[in-house]
Design brief:
about 150 residues, mainly alpha, 434 Repressor (Amino-terminal Domain), 2 domains
């Protein structure tokens, strides 16, 4: 299956339009500028490589290895899978690091390693289900629960 076909399947899996995918990529931690025209071009060209593969995979909830290389299943098995998705974990940690300074400034305290771990686990589980980091209000809830 060609990369363009895998992108189509990823969009269908996530229920996203090309424009929605471009917006989701821009909102990801470490995200980059992406326009709907870029997604359209990726779906029509014959190239089998793109620098957007991990971003598209995270935003659509498919496995990066499947999207980029067509290796393994499209999505990770839900039940009994103890393996962490490295792309999701990377995005979660990047997002947490961006918000950590704001949280510590607002609360006037530093988060302990245990509190950080609780937040990262909650963020990871949320992102693994939805393919995107929660909004700021949900992040604040995670911080309150971890403290």
């Amino acid at each position: 299956m060609k990369l363009s076909e895998r992108i189509d399947r990823a969009l269908d899996h996530a229920g996203l339009s090309q424009a929605s995918l471009a917006n989701a990529i821009q909102r990801l931690p470490g995200g980059t500028t992406c326009r709907q025209q870029t997604i359209s071009r990726l779906k029509t060209e014959q190239s089998e490589r793109t620098g957007y593969a991990v971003h598209i995979a995270v935003a659509t909830g498919v496995r990066p290895e499947w999207l980029a290389l067509e290796r393994g299943p499209m999505v990770a098995p839900k039940e009994g899978n103890a393996a962490l998705d490295l792309a999701v974990l990377t995005a979660v940690i990047a997002g947490f690091e961006l918000m950590q300074a704001d949280v510590e400034k607002a609360t006037g305290t530093s988060l302990s390693a245990r509190e950080k771990a609780k937040i990262i686990v909650a963020l990871y589980e949320s992102m693994a289900r939805t393919g995107q980091l929660p909004d700021e209000e949900t992040l604040a809830t995670f911080v309150r629960l971890a403290s």
